[in-house]
């Protein structure tokens, strides 16, 4: 994979710490310069982003669907309603493959919805695709 020209900042939000570590490790293997930020609750996203200047915002936000506070679809909806955050690609990465969850997230503005892979090969492929949205 071609290295990104700037150090990409990626925000991942998931209440499962092991999943957060796996996402970070997989993306960092492909893009060692990635600046990885992690949150464990959907309601933390907006206050977290509000503290950054426009040029410091993440190039990608990865969200779990099932989280305390706010689920991934609710976070996406909230971010898409704010012009400053609307252009940031928002991806759902969840264990849920329920059509209603997928539809809700996509209708609320998610760019993609992925079911969490159960093997490292698929996770690597997914990480490569997610990184492509930082360009």
Describe this structure in words.
The chain is an alpha/beta fold and 135 residues long. It has a single domain (9-132), classed as Rossmann fold (3-Layer(aba) Sandwich). Helix content is 38%, strand content 17%. The protein has five helices and five strands. The chain has helices spanning 17-30, 45-50, 72-80, 99-107, 120-132; strands at 9-13, 35-39, 60-63, 90-94, 112-115. Strands 2-1-3-4-5 form a five-stranded parallel β-sheet, with helices on both faces. Helix 4 (99-107) links the parallel strand 4 and strand 5 (112-115). Helix 1 packs across helix 5 (120-132) and helix 3 packs parallel to helix 4. It is globular, with a radius of gyration of 14 Å. The chain starts with 8 loop residues before the first strand and ends with a helix.
Can you tag this structure with a few keywords?
single chain; 135 residues; alpha/beta; 5-stranded parallel beta sheet; disordered N terminus
pLDDT averaged over residues = 92
Instruction: From the 3D structure, determine the CATH topology.
Output: Rossmann fold
**Do you know the CATH architecture?**
3-Layer(aba) Sandwich
Number of domains: 1
Q: Roughly how many Å apart are the termini? A: 12 Å
The first-level CATH class name:
Alpha Beta
Order of helices and strands: EHEHEHEHEH
Say which CATH homologous superfamily is assigned.
Response regulator
Any idea what the shape is?
Answer: globular
Q: Hey, roughly how much beta strand do the residues contain?
A: 15-25%
Q: SS-based structural class? A: alpha/beta
């Amino acid at each position: 994979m071609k290295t990104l020209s700037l150090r990409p900042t990626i925000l991942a939000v998931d209440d499962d710490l092991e999943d957060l570590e796996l996402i970070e490790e997989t993306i960092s293997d492909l893009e060692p310069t990635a600046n990885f930020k992690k949150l464990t609750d959907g309601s933390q996203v907006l206050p977290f982003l509000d503290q950054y200047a426009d040029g410091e915002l993440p190039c990608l936000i990865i969200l779990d669907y099932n989280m305390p506070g706010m689920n991934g679809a609710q976070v996406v909806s909230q971010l898409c309603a704010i012009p400053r955050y609307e252009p940031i690609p928002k991806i759902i990465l969840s264990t849920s493959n329920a059509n209603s969850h997928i539809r809700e997230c996509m209708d609320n503005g998610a760019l993609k919805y992925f079911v969490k892979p159960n093997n490292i090969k698929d996770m690597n492929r997914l990480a490569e695709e997610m990184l492509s949205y930082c360009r």
